[in-house]
Amino acid sequence: MADRPSFSHRRERHGLVGPFSGRQLVVGGAAILVAIVLLVAITTPLGNTANGPGTVDPRATAYLIASPPAVGLRVGDAAPEFTVTGGDGSTYQLRDLEGKPIRLADLRGKAVWVNFFTTWCPPCQAEVPILREMSEKYKDRGLALVAVSVQETSPADVAAYAATYQLPYTIGFDGSGKIFHAYKAYGLPTQVFIDPNGVIANVIGAPMDEAGATAQIERLLPSSSAPNAASSSPNAAPAASSAP
Q1: Which among 67, 152, 86, 140 has a CA at the least distance from the CA of 116?
Q2: What is the C-alpha to C-alpha distance for residues 24 and 47, in angstroms, rounded to an integer?
Q3: What does the alpha-carbon distance between residue 18 and residue 13 come to, in Å, rounded to a whole number?
Q4: Residue 111: what are its φ and ψ, rounded to 5°?
Q5: Whole-angstrom Cα distance, residue 76 to residue 199?
Q6: How many CA atoms lie within 13 A of 43 on its CB side?
Q7: Which residues contact 78 (CB under 8 A, 6 or more apart)?
Q8: Band of the pLDDT at 228, cuts 50, 70, 90?
Q9: In the beta sheet, which residues pair with residue 172?
Q10: Which listed residue, 17, 92, 226, 244, has the most CB atoms within 10 A of its CB?
């Protein structure tokens, strides 16, 4: 009769916690720690919404979607036009959701607030009521608010978002992100405030609150002391004398 293999009983090995070994638990814990560090990094405040420079609002956070440029836009620089010329000579023009071109030159004489955003960005969504309110409040006093949608899927999707939240201001569709990069932005939302002469007055890499937005806009509005058309026209009739 053939020899049978001897029988031996080995105790079943168990992991440190359930089926997981100590090594597996250490690796998993390290991965979680790295994820937490990255989450904290991308939600670190980039700027402030206050009137004075150097004051950081700890509530104001933005999503980082690119590396900061070596040199960003500076206060006092001429604001870039909403047109980018490629290396091959082609021109990329920012257009609104209906396909009409948006030109910064057409907004000379107005205070311009450029807001880079996306529809999926929670901080961008949170500040929408502020943008809507400020646009309606200041449009008759010389504010032009241009929100620029960055690398979204289609103008139709952004138009649906604008309709849902009843956004009255101009929205440009920057599907390629070329305008976003021309303005040297790297987080969402990013705010660029431009004076009536087309010069950058402030750049803020954070969502706005009402007080901060009001402060930025008020100091940029065109002077309201300009003479009215009737008094400045050479054909205007002389004012009636109030003397008895």
Answers
A1: 152
A2: 40
A3: 11
A4: -80, 125
A5: 6
A6: 11
A7: 198, 199, 200
A8: very low
A9: 96, 148
A10: 92
**Residue 210: exposure state from Cβ atoms within 10 A (0-12, 13-18, ≥19):** middle
Cα 48–chain centre separation:
13
What the chain holds in terms of domains, given with CATH numbers, is 41-218 (3.40.30.10)
For residue 94, pLDDT beyond 60: yes
Q: Which residue has the tokens 């790297």?
A: 186
The one-letter amino acid code at 77 reads D
- pLDDT, one tens digit per residue, over 150-205 is 999 999 999 999 999 999 999 999 999 999 999 999 999 999 999 999 999 999 99
Give dist(CA 151, CA 107) in Å, integer: 24
Count other Cβ atoms within 10 Å, centred on residue 177: 16
Phi-psi region of 89 (alpha: psi -120 to 50; beta: other; left: phi over 0): left
> What is the identity of the amino acid at 53?
P
- Alpha carbon separation from 127 to 40, 117, 123, 187 (Å, rounded): 21, 10, 7, 15
Question: What is the DSSP secondary structure assignment for residue 20, as one 8-state letter?
Answer: B
- Measured in degrees and rounded to the nearest 5, phi and psi for residue 221 equal -60, 140
Q: Which two tokens stand for residue 234?
A: 């050479």
Identify residue 76 by its one-letter amino acid code.
Answer: G
Rounded distance between C-alpha atoms, residue 110 and residue 1, angstroms:
104
Pair 185, 64: CB distance under 8 Å: no
Place of tokens 């206050």: 50
Alpha-carbon gap, residue 135 to 138, rounded angstroms: 6
Angle at 21 between CA 15 and CA 25, to 5 degrees: 130
Q: What is the pTM of this model?
A: 0.69
Scan for tokens 């054909």, then name that residue: 235
